[in-house]
Write a structure and sequence with these properties.
- It contains three helices and eight strands, in the order βααβββββββα.
- The chain is of the alpha+beta class.
- It folds into two domains: about 55 residues; about 120 residues, no CATH class.
- The chain has a four-stranded antiparallel beta sheet, covered by helices on one side.
- Helix 1 runs antiparallel to helix 2.
- The chain is elongated and about 70 Å long.
- It starts with a strand and ends with a helix.
- The relative contact order is 0.15.
- The model has no long low-confidence stretch (mean pLDDT about 85).
Length: about 180
């Protein structure tokens, strides 16, 4: 079973539902007002498009940023399946700061608090991974998750993540030892 360690930024996703909901409402209204075939065709397109967007946003709402499953830490930083890193490769989580990488820069360069996962330098296959730039970066055995796209980050969240990491690592070592003794 997958255990969610860090949620996505649900506030932003809920905010994104507002214009989509408006598009849905306008489309339904246009369908019911008895306009001509051109307007009705556009309303059907708007209805289809808004429902598609709602499905995508709901899927993102359910998708965490970091999770754990069966000896692997899962980083959801690209489309499709998460990047599954063995628990023994993940060393620690800590806070950092960097560009928010928002689609529209408000004033100057917006900064955000970021979560950084340090990976073991011995595990060369985990040094670099291709990730969605808006969600973060993965270079030199450091996974940076932009705080803009995850739940609010603070010291308590980092302590919780490191505690979960330690517990999962200990449990994984216990499973490995019991498997070796048989």
């Amino acid at each position: 079973m997958t255990q969610v360690w860090l949620q996505s930024n649900r506030r932003v996703l809920l905010l994104a539902l507002v214009p989509v909901g408006l598009l849905l409402g306008v489309s339904v209204a246009l369908l019911n007002l008895g306009f001509g075939p051109v307007v009705k065709g556009g309303a059907w397109v708007g209805l289809f498009f808004s429902l598609l967007l709602i499905l995508g946003l709901v899927a993102q709402f359910r998708r965490p940023r970091v999770a754990y499953r069966e000896g692997e830490v899962l980083f959801y930083m690209r489309t499709g399946s998460p990047i599954a890193v063995p628990i023994e490769v993940v060393e620690a989580f800590f806070l950092g700061q960097g560009p928010a990488n928002l689609p529209v820069q408000v004033v100057g360069k917006a900064e955000s608090v970021n979560l950084i996962a340090r990976l073991s330098r011995k595990a060369k296959q985990w040094e670099q991974q291709s990730v969605k730039c808006a969600l973060g970066s993965w270079t030199d055995s450091y996974v940076t998750i932009r705080g803009t796209w995850c739940e609010p980050l603070n010291g308590e969240v980092v302590r919780r993540l490191n505690r979960l990491l330690a517990e999962a690592s200990a449990a994984n070592r216990g499973v490995a030892k019991s498997g070796e003794s048989k």
